[in-house]
Amino acid sequence: MLLLITAYIILSPSLMCSAKTDWMVRMERVTDALDQSPANNHEEKEHGLPQSAVEVTRLRGFPITNSMVVTWIVALGLIVFAHYATRNMQLVPSGAQNFLEWLVGGLEGFLEKIMGRHLAEKTFWFFATIFIFILATNWVGLIPGVGTVGWGHQTPQGFRIDQPLLRGGNADVNMTFAMALIFFACWIVWALQEVGPIGFLKELFAPKGDTTGLLKILMIAVFFAAGCLEVVSILFRPVSLGFRLYGNVFAGENMLEAMANLVPGLGWLVPIPFYFLELLMGLVQALVFMLLTAVFTMLICQHEAKESS
């Protein structure tokens, strides 16, 4: 399949060039002329949020994007809140300490039911951090002004933002893909620590169940082929995790912008119901990312986890 796709990519330009007729060339010229018309250019300028983050400044040659600014603000806010909640610990918690202990305790109990006590204690630091960070980043991206304040130009329909000063952190695929890659590295370390290199390979390729004779040989071949497919699936997990989170957050922000521009003069009122939907979606996406990564970890370490429990 890969050879066929590669051959198609290599050969398709030459095949298309050789198959072009004068009629097709004329049609392409007409299409290009239509694409360059002022009407189409005006429509292209009225698209939603840009798919990539916008660079707002440079720090000693290092580009700083608007999504990075929001990410740093969220991280700093979480650090300050954690320090404030734990600066004067009380035996009977109240206020910020009570909320933080409720959140951490609830996440710990939730993960323990999924992964078991041993794995939950070992990996809780990562899953709790990733859930809280994704949730806070999703909700901060919904604050009015994020994505709607920045540099732009005046249009007949009103002022349009071209380069927002702030952008939701998870609306940048670089951010979500980076979190997925960090999990992938942690997943490999945890798997090797729990089951070892031999156990890791057995979990992927070794046949399951007790069989003998010809059936055992058949099961070895079947599970080896299934293991090869599992390796491909594992390699694509960071891509699926990163694009799932990015796609949902980016689509939500575009939906809010579309609702704001739907009815002139009521741009502040129409998106309000959708804000509540996006608040729920931000919680769901943080929970889904944490659950998927936790289940992936549990599956590769489940035998060791059962023995430890």
Could you please describe the fold and organization of this structure?
The chain is mostly helical and 309 residues long. Helix content is 72%, strand content 7%. The protein has 9 helices and 4 strands. The strands form 2 sheets. It has a two-stranded antiparallel ribbon. Strands 3-4 form a two-stranded antiparallel sheet. A hairpin with a 2-residue loop joins β1 and β2. α4 packs across α6, α6 packs antiparallel against α9 and α7 runs parallel beside α9. The longest helix is centred in the last third of the chain and has 48 residues. It is globular. The two termini are 44 Å apart.
Helix content: over 70%
Instruction: Indicate the low-confidence ranges by residue numbers.
Output: 1-28, 37-47, 304-309
- The topology string of helices and strands comes to HHHEEHHHEEHHH
Strand order of the largest sheet: 1-2
> Helical element count?
9
Major sheet? 2 strands, antiparallel
Q: What value does the average pLDDT take?
A: 81
Give me the secondary-structure category: mainly alpha
Distance between the termini: 44 Å
Number of strands: 4
Strand content: 5-15%
Gyration radius from CA atoms, angstroms: 26 Å
Q: How many discrete structural domains?
A: 1
Shape: globular
